[in-house]
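stage 2 :: seqdesign
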């Protein structure tokens, strides 16, 4: 085992044309979970194949003590089995399908053991990849230490947890430790320094606090950074390392910062939000549809002229596209609007379309010819109003024969009360709420606390809600917008605004 004090010096560009290494090191969060089922060997291998510096994955103990890769306590969401993983032996888990839920081509993908994940080495020419093992429960450190002990020399590893006692136990076992939090705090800074932890990681915009601007005695990490602006900030700081669900975007952003080191502008590709009004446009394609005329912005961040091909790339659903692709010739620092028309969608929420800009430039004084592909998601959103009077939210149908399902929301001072009004024929339905980056579960209803600055936020806060139940052994989900359940591939959440702004 090796602590690995430096970020691996690996090229990180995938298909982006320019080989640019870290820092920050870039690790695939649960592998490459938008291309393969999360926390499987296929997903982890894909992350290494596209040129990432390492992989981050979750480990949990099964009933017979072995550690398997799984994010949730239960098997329900990402396998064809149900129940707590802690109640299943490794023999029982050997027949579980951990890939069929994602796509038919992954049917039969096994639930990996921790040892199998740690054995992945990637391309020998790039050096040993980083491994981050995330622990969300206690009592696993000894088993992890045993597995890590057999790693080949020079393999960098971090044991990550939000639980302080787990981090201290891992440190005492000689394992480099990564304490996780939502945002940087002075309390955590003192804790990390006092106890000699190797690393500290926070989520999107988590370093943009007063404590984040102070000197830290450890590696600084960004966790689950996917949005273009968050990736750009992480690469400009730069952080020691980051984890992401968007490997190619992260690699391209790191390349951008190295290729245009003097640029201080925003991310060069800015895509608009697209408001969805279910029922307004269907065309037989489903509730999650719309017709939009909008424009994106493309900027040249380089100190030389570039040729740009700009266009749209759908990731989920069927769309008619007009106005793009187009070719642009941009001088240094020049910015232009790119208008387009988009019509279509799907029944279920899913990955939002991407607006992309492929930059190309010729060789010139002090530079070789090159290219770089940048993209930004066209987030589809809905808007809900938090009012003292109950508001009814009609959930999206996920199939043509779905019955109407509704949820009511009501504001009571600093709280939002979310209740199932009609479950659309599903029995024993339970609520699920996404609010400002956090996910909450309840029975027929749930009470969540609004952010302290909720009434001052001009654009509202990220919000979605829905319900889920089991029918004929299959989990059924009804959503008001993207963002729920707390998983990938369900699109972006909508917005919640106060009544004074609604």
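stage 2 :: out
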């Amino acid at each position: 085992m090796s602590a690995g004090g430096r970020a691996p010096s690996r090229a990180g560009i995938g298909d982006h044309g320019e080989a640019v290494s870290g820092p920050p090191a870039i690790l695939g969060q649960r592998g490459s979970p938008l291309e393969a089922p999360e926390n499987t060997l296929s997903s982890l291998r894909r992350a290494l194949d596209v040129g990432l510096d390492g992989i981050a994955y979750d480990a949990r103990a099964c009933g017979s003590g072995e550690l398997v890769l799984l994010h949730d306590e239960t098997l329900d969401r990402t396998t064809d089995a149900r129940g707590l993983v802690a109640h299943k032996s490794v023999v029982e888990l050997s027949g579980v399908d951990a890939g069929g839920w994602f796509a038919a081509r992954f049917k039969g993908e096994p639930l990996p053991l921790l040892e199998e994940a740690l054995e992945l080495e990637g391309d020998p020419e790039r050096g040993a990849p980083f491994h981050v093992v995330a622990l969300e429960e206690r009592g696993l450190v000894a088993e992890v230490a045993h597995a890590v002990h057999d790693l080949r020399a020079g393999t960098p590893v971090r044991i990550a947890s939000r639980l302080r006692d787990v981090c201290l136990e891992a440190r005492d076992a000689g394992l480099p430790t990564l304490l996780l939090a939502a945002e940087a705090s002075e309390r955590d800074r003192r804790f990390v320094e006092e106890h000699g932890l190797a690393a500290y990681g926070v989520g999107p915009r988590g370093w943009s606090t007063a404590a984040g601007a102070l000197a830290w005695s450890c590696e600084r990490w960004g966790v689950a950074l996917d949005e273009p602006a968050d990736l750009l900030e992480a690469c400009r700081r730069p952080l020691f390392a980051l984890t992401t669900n968007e490997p190619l975007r992260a690699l391209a952003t790191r390349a951008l910062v190295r290729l245009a080191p003097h640029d201080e502008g925003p991310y060069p590709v800015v895509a608009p939000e697209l408001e969805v009004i279910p029922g307004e446009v269907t065309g037989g394609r489903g509730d999650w549809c719309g017709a939009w005329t909008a424009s994106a912005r493309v900027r040249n961040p380089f100190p030389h002229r570039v040729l740009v091909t700009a266009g749209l790339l759908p990731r989920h659903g069927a769309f008619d596209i007009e106005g793009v692709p187009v070719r642009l010739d941009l001088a240094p620092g020049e910015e232009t609007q790119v208008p387009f028309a988009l019509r279509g969608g799907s029944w279920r929420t899913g990955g939002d379309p991407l607006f992309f800009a492929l930059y190309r430039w010729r060789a010139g004084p002090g530079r070789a010819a090159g290219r770089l592909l940048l993209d930004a998601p066209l987030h589809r959103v809905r808007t809900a109003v938090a009012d003292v009077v109950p508001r009814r939210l009609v959930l999206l149908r996920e199939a043509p024969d779905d019955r109407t399902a509704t949820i009511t929301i009501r504001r009571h001072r600093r709280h939002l009360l979310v209740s199932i009004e009609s479950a659309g024929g599903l029995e024993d339905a339970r609520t699920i709420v996404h609010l400002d980056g956090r996910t909450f579960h309840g029975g027929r209803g749930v009470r969540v606390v609004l952010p302290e600055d909720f009434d001052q936020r001009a654009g509202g806060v990220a919000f979605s809600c829905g319900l889920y139940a089991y029918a004929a052994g299959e989990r059924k989900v009804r959503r008001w917008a993207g963002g729920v359940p707390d998983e990938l591939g369900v699109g972006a959440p909508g917005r919640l605004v106060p009544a004074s702004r609604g």
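stage 3 :: structure notes
- The CA atoms of residues 11 and 19 lie 5 Å apart.
- Helices lie at 41-49, 90-93, 114-118, 141-149, 164-172, 186-195, 228-236, 247-259.
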